[in-house]
Amino acid sequence: MENLENSSYWMALAHLPRWRTERINRLIVDILQEKKMTYAEFFSLDKNNWQNEFELNSNEIAELETAKKELPNYSFLAESLINQGYNIVPIDSADYSPTLKANLKLKFSPPVIYIKGNKQLLQEDTVAIVGSRNASDISLQFTKTVAQKCAKEYKVVVSGFAKGVDKKALDETLAVVGHSIIVLPQGIMTFSSGFRKYYSQIVQGDVLVLSTFHPKVPWSAGLAMSRNVYIYGLAKTIYAAESDSKGGTWSGVLDGLKKGREIYVRKPGSDEKNANELLILAGAKPVDSDGNILIEESSYLQTRLKDMLSSQSFTIEEIIEKLKLKIESENFSKILSGLDFIERKRINKQNYFYLKERVESQMELF
Amino acid sequence: MTRPEAEQKLKQSFNLDHFYDDQWKTIERILNGERILLIEKTGFGKSLCYQFPATQFEGMTIIFSPLIALMRDQVKYLKSIGINCECINSGQEAEENTEILENAVNGKIKILYIAPERQENQQWTEAVRMMNLSMVVVDEAHCISVWGHDFRPAFMRIISLVRLLPENFPVLATTATATQKVADDIIQQIGRNVSLIRGNLLRKNFYLSVVKVDDEISKMAWIAQFLQKQAGNGLIYTGTRVNTDLYAAWLQSENISAANYNAGLDSDSRKDIENGLQENRWKCIVSTNALGMGIDKPDVRFIIHTQMPQSPIHYYQEIGRAGRDGLPTNIILLYNPEDKELPEHFIKNSRPSLKKYEKVIEALKKEPLGEWNLMRKTNLTQTQVRVIRADLIDQGIIREVMYGRDKKYEYQFGASQLDIESFEKLRDFKMNELDQMVNYCESTECRMDFLCSYLGDDSVKKCDNCNNCLQRNPQYFPDNYWKARIRKFQQDFYPELEVETGSSNIVNGIAASYYGFSNVGAIIHRCKYEKGGDFPNHLLILTLRAFRHKFEDEKFDLIVYVPPTESGDLVKNFAYKIARTLRFPFSDKLKKVHHTKPQKIFQNYVLKRDNVKDVFSYENEAEIFGKKILLIDDIFDSGATIKEIAKMFTKIGAEIIAPLVIAKTIGGDL
User: Which of A169, A272, A314, B410 is the Cys-Cys partner for A268 at CB 3.0 to 4.6 Å?
Assistant: First the structure.
């Protein structure tokens, strides 16, 4: 059992308004590890000490003063949570997901998570299957296959509880009595209907519900977007079933790639109109319809792109048109900029993309 | 703040000159942000120990108290001296509570009294998040401990709350009655540096005595004679609800004004009696231990127990509210060694069987359920469900979860096995306490010393006022005069059927007897289940007498009877004979639309009500309009059937429905 007496401190710090996650986490490390203080000791310091010992600025100090006043209020909320069977897990707890911490580091790891259900699931091997809210049947079939394969391997399937792929991953996992973590786009106390629906799975230990937000905050689109970070963070392995060239899955996968995560994307058929190929181009690993990794020399789009740019340079719009892609030029431009074999130059206020090797070889000629 | 400074402020706001030393000791530490357990006898002035600091803090003080009556009194007092103080409770209109919450959020209230159960209310938990809080007080803190005399499950949540409050946030827990074991338990549960402040327990003005008697009749006779001589007003505690009824009726028949009070009464009636007590409307109030802690009256002159309580700590608590004015006060226990059986029975049966616990656990593994649905699924009584629920919550096996506004219970994944060893330990402990209570009754030493020592105060030695210190050994045997009076009273005593509700035109009715009191129950049983034939004539005579007692010469337009489930025409024939004697029209047109199961197989009111819901109809509805109906049945238990029939009759225009039955069972659920 964690030191529950500290719940109000955890919550007051985690929900400091206007503080970046990293700032909060650094302060926690500073208090507990650097200064070896208890939270109670920290909060009984005066402003001068806060300023001198913790290098807090006047805005931060004002916000901490408010948080200090709210401590008893958080105690009431914490009591309500604990009484109703929710766990409050701070970042320094042994119950906290090691995967989440390893993936998101101090920069993005939520200082507190709220959970209900089998907390052991946080310690196990995890997989997320992400994808569009209105995915095709092929993608849903892929989701089912991968989810059930993972369940058989005793992996925990992390689901964002959105329509489409998220929900499918959850339902198929539970259909074969696998384990799942539901990551909420809302405060954990606002999820009554879900708790009713998954009651027996929670009671049997197959499901853990998790939220990183203030327990009372209702669903919002903004929270749904920020929740994606935690889905990727909680999963050791990430599969993308289907992505459009914009939206949650799209930005989520790209964000994951940027953070150096390995992400498996279902290799689409030639007639599919999704943006899976583009994600593969951006660096995601292609997998077949059973989730097996495909070893490719280079991706289909990469080959075509190289062919096209081997003789000539093009503007972004020209490339999109010639390759018959469905993507906004700005988004595609970002992808191309991230590829190591492509460079761009600016001529007459236009960006032109060309193959790196070609230019280099030309250079040598001169 | 120094003591002189504080006392100056005390003069200004409370018009008091100084603190007692223990008061100041407590207040000084509270102002310093400490946690205190304060154990002081009734009348010491515990409330000032939080009221004063509350006025000095910037934010609001929350006081958890289980006693609505006491909360009301304190709010009245604090308002009268100009302190912004309110009380939130279930007895008030929702609008009023909402307004108080708003004012609390806006910082307009200094002291807020609430019941511990309020922690379960969503509106409260929402609002409290936004209040500026300075201190939490737990009044009657012994309710935290199962080792005390009045453990209340709602206090479990107060404990977890207090544990979660930040360090340096002042918390005061107070009680008048705690043994060392209870004090240790409270301190251990509250956690984080609690210090104990404890005063002496001696009540100098108490005249304790134990009067030895042989039976119930002796007690009744003794009390009637005692009250003729005793000045002032006081309380009589009985062991059961039925006895509050019986003793109050007996005293009334002796022209001694008495009211009966028990947990079966609705909150309006209870409030009315509490007010009546303050105004000395009656010579005495006959009550179960439901009344007691809530009394804030200086001049309760006597307290008589017709039944020994479960333990000396119960006893000290129940007599605690007497004689706060310091004037001589008689504290009498009527003792018949056989009286040990009742508390013994309570202790032994305080917990349902293991099988019933399992039933609840299994039901909750399938789905989250509220209290009523839990009763439906398990067919357990409400009391059983509540006891089991509290234990399971305490052991972390289930949790109470809010689904919107509804409270439901959820099984917890990974919960440990039910620990029954702790139940056995507690039962053994309580049996031991009961033995101590018997020892009190049998003791020849100073009684005040006995009680105070039991509560951890060894300073008394000799009170000089109890029957032992005065070397008296009272015993009482009634003479024939009193025996005859009581026999006559018993013949004329009929249990009231309290069924009036706002939702139908039913009025309170009457029963000829209690089911288990005389041989009436046995006769009914023989007729119903052992083919004993029609209910015998003397039951008819008794029932007619009960009718006259309650309704005198009132005329009814129609006599109907409750259609049977399995016992044939017994009730029909009985009702017909009553109709013939009283010369009221008789009807057998009240029917069941479909078959029902016997009510007795259902253990709780919810299932009984479900069983008879929409079951009754009347063949010729027009016949009922504007009529006064006398409704006959053999046994009255939960009243669910009779209330359902009354609902139907009300719908088709009946003016009055009055129930008349042969026997009323003791202790129906709900």
Answer: A272
**Does A309 share its domain with A204?**
no
Distance, in angstroms, between A164 CA and closest chain B CA? 27
SS3 content of chain B, % helix, strand, coil (to 5): 45, 20, 40
Instruction: Give the residue extent of every domain in chain B.
Output: 3-198, 202-489, 494-664
User: How many distinct structural domains can be found in chain A?
Assistant: 3
> To probe the interface with A, which of B32, B413, B416 has the most A CB atoms within 10 Å?
B413
Tell whether A170 is covered by a domain: yes
- Across the interface, of B133, B191, B368, the residue whose CB is closest to A73 is B133
Q: What is the DSSP letter of B340?
A: G
Give the mean model confidence (pLDDT) for residues A278-287: 92
Secondary element (H or E) of residue B590 = strand B590-592
**B247: pLDDT confidence band, cut at 50, 70 and 90?**
very high
Q: Which residue of B has its CA nearest to A38?
A: B167
B476-486 pLDDT, tens digit each: 999 999 999 99
Same domain? A272 vs A346: no
* B161, B365, B403: residue with CB nearest A75: B161
A45-65 core/surface letters (b: 16 or more CB in 10 A; e: else): beeeebeeebebeeebbebbe
- What is the model's pLDDT at position B414? 87
B173: distance to nearest CA of chain A, Å? Answer: 17
Interface test with A, best of B164, B361, B412 (most A CBs within 10 A): B164
**Mean model confidence pLDDT for chain B:** 91
**Cβ distance of A8 and B413 shorter than 8 Å:** no
Q: Is pLDDT above 60 for A329?
A: yes
Report the DSSP beta bridge partners of residue B511. B661
Residues 6+ apart with CB under 8 A from B16: B10, B48
pLDDT mean over B541-557: 92
3-state secondary structure of A11: helix
Contacts of residue A347, Cβ cutoff 8 Å, sequence gap at least 6: none
Alpha-carbon distance of B648 to B664, in angstroms, equals: 22
Q: Give B366's contacts in chain A (Cβ within 8 Å).
A: 200
Segments forming the whole domain that contains residue A38: 4-84
In the predicted model, is pLDDT for residue A180 greater than 70? Answer: yes
Last residue of a domain, one of A247, A263, A287: A287
ipTM of the complex: 0.82
Q: What are A43's two structure tokens?
A: 């909060």
Among A256, A287, A318, which residue terminates a domain? A287
The CATH number, out of the four listed (3.40.50.2020, 3.10.350.10, 3.30.420.40, 3.30.420.10), of the domain defined by the range B494-664: 3.40.50.2020
* A85 with B130: Cβ contact below 8 A: no
Q: Contact at 8 Å (CB) between A73 and B131?
A: yes
Q: What is the pLDDT of residues A4-43, one digit of tens each?
A: 889 999 999 999 999 999 999 999 999 999 999 999 999 9
What confidence tier does A366 reach under pLDDT thresholds 50, 70, 90? very low
Tokens of B303: 């307290």
| Identity of the residue in B163, B399, B411 whose CB atom sits nearest the CB atom of A84 | B399
**Interface-testing mutation among A39, A43, A69, A76, with chain B (most B C-beta atoms within 10 A):** A76
Q: Do B403 and A78 touch (CB under 8 A)?
A: no
Fold of B3-198: Rossmann fold (3.40.50)
| DSSP codes of every residue in B520-584 | HHHHHHHHHHS---SPPHHHHHHHHHHHHHHHTT---SEEEEPPPSSSTTHHHHHHHHHHHHHT-
Residue B669 reports pLDDT greater than 90? no
| Same domain? A231 vs A149 | yes
* CA-based nearest residue in chain A for residue B192: A5
Question: How many angstroms separate the CA of residue B390 from the nearest CA in chain A?
Answer: 13
CATH number listed for the domain at residues B202-489:
3.40.50.300
